[in-house]
Specification:
heterodimer, A: mainly alpha, B: 6-stranded mixed beta sheet, 4-stranded antiparallel beta sheet, 10 helices, 23% strand, ATP-binding cassette domain-containing protein (chain B), ATP-binding (chain B), ABC_transporter_ATP-binding (chain B)
């Protein structure tokens, strides 16, 4: 077709037999409509699990902090009995809060990975695939959810080992899975949104550090909302972590909670997060 | 200078048509009225020094950047309006080493099979073929972080090939590689092209590579194409114009001729150089 075809070069010596490339000339059939989103989410989650399988260091090191919270803070405050827990041991009360916290810590720094992937060219290449930006962000957010979920299992096991009485009802556990994943979707999208604004790892690191503590202490993870001063109660009301902890507590311990409200707020927060992170993803593509 | 640009209108199908493409970062005009036409099935080289606008042009064609002025068509699809349709036709290898070092070679390729909707039934075989085409079968289950620079590039080619693209876009595919690895990467590009007939659009600042491996080249400088043709045509053209005897001038001579002086002063800004060096050091 072209006037000056490249001269045939001698085949490399290491190529013993010609390779069959029949599949590489037929383009795959494109998924369309609603099927694209679950396919992309699945692809991103698969990658996350593959990475975890190759390198479990992070899983172990990230288990240290929640273990210490439960072991030191939990055991001590169980003795002090300073916090009104509605009649259950403080360690039990604390465990769902620490599950939510460790999931949030993973998610809130997920944006750093997005920036790293941008700098490495990985994100750039994904942006040139038939994947709408919202689908890419949703995929990444659920991948963060999967990672947080694996971490949550570790924390649940630690808590169980410390004698926390939790439910083993499969339906309730399914609810726990949904709550952990949706919370992580929101916090990872918050992180990716900030990543889209600040664009560098150092700045995101600083902001991440600055907001995790207020999010954690401004929630019902450590103590009931009723003991907070008025202004902090207001913070807790708009903090999705509170709803996540409320749901986890209700499901795992059977304490009085507002499951309907929790499972209304969490998907809404997740959807809002996905929308804002997707709208800023273009800045990372530049 | 612009008289050198030949805009061919042969009736063959076109892989890429760019008309009047312009793109600016702040005050810098990265691409400034680019006209380009890549024929179906050819290896087309976009040449120029750092900062000539090659990468920006590529990023517009791959739909990574919007098209603020001008038009881009990829096999008849508008790059600004039919992004998804264009992306399905593309295999893209960016300048940076973009394989995920925490995954195995096979997993890296499988990810791209997944996001291009390769069916479950076909996935394993397709991934296998893409890896085999790049001679990576033996290393397929090793983590990519254990690969050499040349192997990573071949892995990225396998990632791009798994979706059977009609247009392969390579941004500086051999940057930072040693001469043997460079030849090896080009040999693999050739094998795939011979087997699949896909069009290849490649940017490089290695003029010797372009001379040897490209069917046609466009010399780009300050956001525009300053000369276009087969490497041979361009070199003969310059020899005739200069009236020199003996060995033909090189593509580099042609480039100096069309770009004129001041080449060295503005060859790439700080960011360009930094990213190039970073890639080079990661490959090295």
């Amino acid at each position: 077709m072209s006037e000056a075809p490249v001269a045939p070069r001698p085949a490399s010596a290491d190529r013993v037999h010609p390779v069959d490339l029949d599949l590489l000339v037929t383009p795959p059939r494109a998924r369309t409509g609603w099927r694209v989103l679950p396919a992309r989410v699945l692809a991103m989650c698969a990658v996350e699990l593959q990475k975890l399988r190759h390198d479990r260091t992070e899983l172990y090191t990230r288990a240290v902090q929640p273990a210490l919270w439960l072991l030191i803070f939990g055991e001590t405050f169980t003795r002090i009995r300073a916090i009104p827990t509605g009649g259950i041991p403080y360690l039990d009360y604390l465990a769902p809060g620490i599950i939510a916290q460790s999931a949030m810590f993973i998610a809130i720094f997920y944006g750093i990975m997005i920036i790293w992937e941008r700098d490495a060219g990985i994100l750039t290449k994904l942006l040139v695939t038939p994947t709408p930006r919202a689908a890419l962000i949703t995929g990444k957010a659920f991948a963060a959810g999967v990672k947080a979920l694996v971490q949550a299992v570790v924390v649940v096991l630690i808590a169980a080992a410390l004698g926390v009485a939790m439910t083993w009802n499969p339906l309730r556990l399914l609810g726990v899975v949904v709550a952990v994943v949706l919370g992580s979707v929101f916090f990872s999208c918050l992180s990716m949104t900030i990543a889209g604004i600040v664009l560098t790892r150092d700045r995101l690191m600083g902001i991440g550090q600055a907001i995790t503590m207020p999010l954690f202490f401004g929630s019902n993870a450590l103590y009931p909302v009723s003991v907070m001063p008025g202004w902090l109660q207001a913070v807790s009301k708009v903090n999705p972590l509170s709803y996540q902890v409320d749901a986890l507590r209700g499901l795992l311990l059977g304490t009085p909670s507002h499951l309907l409200l929790d499972f209304a707020v969490l998907p809404l927060a997740a959807a809002a997060g996905i929308a804002s992170a997707s709208s800023l993803l273009g800045r990372l593509a530049r | 200078m612009m008289g050198n640009v030949t805009y061919d209108d042969a009736p063959e199908p076109r892989a890429v048509i760019c008309t009047g493409l312009a793109y600016s970062f702040a005050e810098t005009k990265a691409v400034d009225g680019l006209d380009l036409s890549v024929r179906d099935g050819e290896v087309f080289g976009l040449l120029g020094p750092n900062g000539a606008g090659k990468t920006t042009a590529i990023r517009c064609i791959t739909t990574l950047l919007p098209v603020p002025a001008g038009k881009i068509h990829v096999f008849g699809h508008d790059a600004a309006r039919e992004r998804m349709a264009v992306r399905r036709l593309l295999g893209y290898v960016p300048q940076q080493l973009s394989a995920d070092s925490g995954l195995t070679g096979r997993e890296n390729v499988a990810l791209f099979a997944r996001v291009f909707d390769v069916s479950r039934r076909e996935r394993a075989r397709r991934v296998e073929q893409a890896l085999a085409a790049m001679d990576l079968t033996a290393a397929a289950d090793r983590l990519a972080r254990t690969y050499s620079g040349g192997m990573v590039r071949r892995l990225e080619l396998a990632q791009a090939l798994v979706s059977a693209p009609r247009l392969l876009i390579l941004d500086e595919p051999t940057i930072g590689l040693d001469p043997i690895a460079r030849t090896n990467v080009w040999e693999h590009i050739d094998i795939v092209r011979a087997a699949t007939g896909m069009t290849v659009l490649v940017t490089t600042h290695y003029m010797d590579e372009a001379d040897q491996y490209c069917d046609r080249v466009a010399l780009m400088h300050r956001g525009r194409v300053h000369a276009l043709g087969t490497p041979d045509e361009l070199r003969r053209g310059l020899a005739e114009r200069l009236g020199t005897e003996g060995p033909l001038p090189t593509l580099e001579d042609v480039f100096r001729d069309v770009a004129g002086s001041g080449l060295d002063d503005q060859a790439g800004d700080f960011r360009d150089v930094r990213s190039t060096r970073r890639t080079a050091s990661r490959v090295g």
